[in-house]
């Protein structure tokens, strides 16, 4: 026996989905226009890429197979990778105290007033706006070529970036536990230590690991301008047209980046962040 | 009961923009008294309590409290990653020097012992070492009350302390608050359950339209008066 299915239709008219507003269309037009300007300004030309394929082929012909001579290439490459890792590690960890203090002052949940808030935000913006490579060039003039200049550059730039990210994380935290301690008479510092920081700790650690990952890769680039590490060896190989050596260094970098990525993922899983 | 109230609110007014939430509230609460504050959503109950503890700044009126008032919240507001004991100790931060309050590890032994005593008073001593986030809603609210006790308060305010709890936990928390009043605290609890107020409170205060419209011993408040508190825009005369 079959029965007629009940008609599943409301009697009132569903609201019409509105067309995009003039503002939305205007924003879309501006975005398209910006892309056209950027296309022209960068000389973006797929045709030039296709026409120059022979240059790429020559490059790979010289670069492959990689030079795997242990004493002259592989071992120095591994030693330099350890230096690069050290630059990234110290550049991250030594910036923690500065980033933490500035983040606490730059988050509305923990800051002491609007002047302090704006001042801390300004310092973070400055440190973030100056690229780490510029900091490296500045510190090379003070301490000379080598990894120390790279560490200093990363400490300054990472303080700006990580401080901003941490401040944002603190601003997004639920204010209830902080208010509860405020009612109990806790000072602002006590509220930060006993309510805001414990609540945001997983995010802070997650962001710290992310920045460590980024800084290890940044320290490669800093090596290109003389801050030591494997970036310095890559730069030397390019200058000497030893592309087979360069590929060996890049393979070591690949292993380093994968190892750091896996380590960060492992720590994140263990901490549940 | 002593003649001097532990909490005195006089002519308290508060507006948010054009919206007048409190319109001249008067309320006296004595030590040992459990006052239940009832009223429809938006009538100003929570705002009044938040003014008393300083989380809102009143536009006008006067608030006098015997010592620093403590407050427990509907959403409890414990730090979930910390133990119940550490959360209770945090209630004493206001009287700890900075050198002993930078980390829970630095809390003085006497404070930890006092916090255990507070947890015993709310029946949670056996859960002291557990992270707050692993406790049930009712247990968390007990820990929050213990945190308020660790503040050594004379006036305990509770803003909808049982709204997020199941009925049996709500009864137990209400009875706990009544018990604390019996021990000498002045307790003011915003409730949304008139039957709990009738069961546990000494006095019922009803708010409507930002004004106190009912203020009488529990036994003297009629069911009609209670019902009228939840009729929007109606004032009991």
From TrEMBL, chain A:
Instruction: Give TM regions.
Output: 21-41, 80-105, 126-156, 216-234, 246-267
Q: Which residues form the signal peptide?
A: none
Q: Which Pfam families match?
A: BPD_transp_1
Quick check: keyword Transit peptide in the entry? Answer: no
Concerning InterPro entries, the annotation shows: MetI-like, MetI-like_sf, PhnE/PtxC
Q: Which UniProt keywords apply?
A: Cell membrane, Membrane, Transmembrane, Transmembrane helix, Transport
Q: Where in or outside the cell is it found?
A: Cell membrane
Q: List the membrane topology term(s).
A: Multi-pass membrane protein
The chain's coiled-coil residues are: none
Q: Which SUPFAM superfamilies match?
A: MetI-like
- Start and end residues of each ABC transmembrane type-1 domain: 81-264
Family from the record: Belongs to the binding-protein-dependent transport system permease family.
Any idea what this protein is called? Answer: ABC transmembrane type-1 domain-containing protein
UniProtKB/TrEMBL annotation, chain B:
Q: Which residues form the ABC transporter domain?
A: 7-234
Keyword set includes Signal: no
Q: Please indicate which superkingdom the organism of origin belongs to.
A: Bacteria
The UniProt GO MF terms for this protein read: ATP binding
Q: Which UniProt keywords apply?
A: ATP-binding, Nucleotide-binding, Transport
Instruction: Kindly give the SMART domains that the UniProt entry links to this protein.
Output: AAA (SM00382)
What is the protein's name according to its record? Answer: Phosphonate ABC transporter ATP-binding protein
Q: Which species does this protein come from?
A: Prauserella alba
Q: What is the lineage of its organism?
A: Bacteria, Bacillati, Actinomycetota, Actinomycetes, Pseudonocardiales
């Amino acid at each position: 026996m079959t029965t007629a299915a009940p008609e599943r239709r409301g009697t009132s008219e569903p609201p019409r989905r509105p067309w995009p507003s003039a503002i939305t269309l205007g924003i879309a037009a501006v975005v398209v226009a910006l892309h056209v300007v950027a296309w022209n300004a960068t000389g973006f030309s797929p045709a030039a890429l296709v026409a120059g394929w022979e240059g790429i082929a020559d490059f790979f012909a010289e670069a492959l197979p990689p030079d795997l001579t242990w004493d002259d290439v592989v071992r120095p490459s591994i030693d330099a990778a350890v230096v690069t890792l050290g630059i990234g590690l110290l550049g991250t960890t030594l910036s923690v105290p500065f980033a933490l203090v500035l983040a606490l002052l730059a988050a509305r949940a923990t800051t002491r007033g609007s002047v302090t808030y704006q001042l801390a935000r300004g310092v973070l913006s400055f440190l973030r706006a100056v690229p780490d490579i510029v900091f490296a060039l500045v510190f090379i003039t003070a301490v000379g070529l080598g990894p120390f200049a790279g560490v200093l550059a990363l400490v300054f730039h990472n303080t700006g970036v990580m401080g901003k990210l941490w401040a944002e994380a603190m601003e997004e935290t639920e204010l209830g536990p902080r208010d509860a301690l405020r009612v109990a008479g806790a000072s602002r510092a006590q509220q930060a230590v006993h309510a805001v920081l414990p609540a945001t700790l997983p995010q802070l650690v997650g962001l710290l690991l992310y920045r460590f990952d980024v800084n290890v890769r940044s320290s490669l680039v800093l090596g290109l301008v003389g801050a030591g590490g494997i970036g310095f060896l890559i730069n030397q190989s390019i200058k000497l047209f030893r592309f087979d050596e360069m590929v060996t260094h890049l393979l070591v970098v690949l292993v380093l980046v994968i190892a750091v990525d896996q380590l960060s993922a492992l720590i994140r899983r263990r901490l549940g962040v | 009961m002593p003649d001097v109230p532990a909490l005195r609110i006089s002519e308290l007014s508060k507006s948010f923009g054009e919206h007048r939430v409190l319109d001249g509230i008067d309320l006296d609460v004595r030590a040992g008294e459990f006052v239940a504050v009832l009223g429809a959503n938006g009538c100003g109950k929570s705002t009044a309590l938040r003014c008393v503890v300083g989380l809102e700044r009143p536009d006008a009126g006067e608030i006098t409290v015997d010592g620093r008032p403590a407050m427990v919240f509907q959403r409890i507001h414990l730090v979930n990653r910390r133990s119940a004991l550490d959360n209770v100790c945090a209630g004493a931060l206001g009287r700890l020097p900075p050198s002993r309050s930078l980390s829970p590890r630095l809390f003085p032994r006497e404070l930890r012992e006092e916090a255990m005593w507070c947890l015993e008073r709310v029946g949670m001593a056996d859960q002291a070492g557990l992270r707050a986030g692993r406790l049930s809603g009712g247990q968390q609210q007990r820990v929050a009350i213990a945190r308020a006790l660790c503040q050594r308060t004379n006036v305990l305010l509770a803003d909808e302390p049982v709204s997020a709890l199941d009925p049996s936990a709500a009864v137990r928390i209400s009875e706990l608050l009544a018990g604390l009043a019996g021990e000498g605290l002045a307790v003011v609890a915003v409730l949304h359950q008139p039957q709990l107020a009738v069961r546990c409170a000494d006095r019922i205060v009803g708010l409507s339209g930002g004004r106190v419209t009912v203020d009488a011993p529990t036994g003297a408040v009629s069911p009609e008066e209670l019902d009228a508190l939840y009729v929007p825009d109606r004032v009991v005369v």
